Amino acid sequence: MPERLILCAGPYIYEGFKTLDANPDYKPDYCAVLPPLPRELRDGRWQEIYLIHGIEHFYKWEAMELMAQVHEALSDGGILVMEQPNLTVVAEVMLGIREPMTENKELSGIMAIYGDPGYGNPWMCHRWGWTPDSLTSALLQCGFLPEKIKVCRAMSRPFAEGRDFRVEAKK
Fold first, then answer.
1. For residues 45 and 162, what is the distance between their CA atoms, to the nearest angstrom?
2. Which of 24, 47, 153, 156 lies 20 to 30 angstroms, CA to CA, from 80?
3. Does the bond joining 36 to the residue before it have cis omega, within 30 degrees of 0?
């Protein structure tokens, strides 16, 4: 069975994955506030690490630290998969250049920038925005190679088709 890990898993359970979250109420396999990625997880054993709608919840310097530690945690050939809002698309929606892709315009615009205040939880707020180019550049700085980074269509949030993007970075 491959070693697979979901970071910032929240209440979601994924078959075949270990989970890490800061909230013990979700009963994750690993309970930790990121960064840092716990030292015991940075041993190069993970074939897949997912961070779906998570990287935007960190300040840029925290995100850089975390991505470098994920690179360390991946096995050779292992893959990091991230999905997040595309800040360029979000700005175009907010400026009226592009039509919202969600029923609630705020989900296509302001909430994609700042996160969801409805939770009353600072962990649900966004601290940095990304575009495909800026996230690719950050991954390169964290040790991933350009020929092993792929940007594609997001798959996890179909209600926001066109707003989000997916990055797959292999070690």
1. 33
2. 24
3. yes
**Residues 105-161 pLDDT 10s:** 999 999 999 999 998 989 899 999 999 999 999 999 999 999 999 999 999 888 889
Q: Angle of helix 132-141 relative to helix 60-73, nearest 10 degrees?
A: 60
Q: Is pTM, for the whole model, over 0.85?
A: yes
- How many residues would you count in the chain? 171
**How far apart (Å, rounded) are the C-alpha atoms in residues 19 and 153?**
24
> What gap in Å lies between CA 31 and CA 47, rounded to an integer?
20
Burial of 108 (0-12, 13-18, 19+ CB in 10 A): buried
| Structure token pair of residue 62 | 């925290």
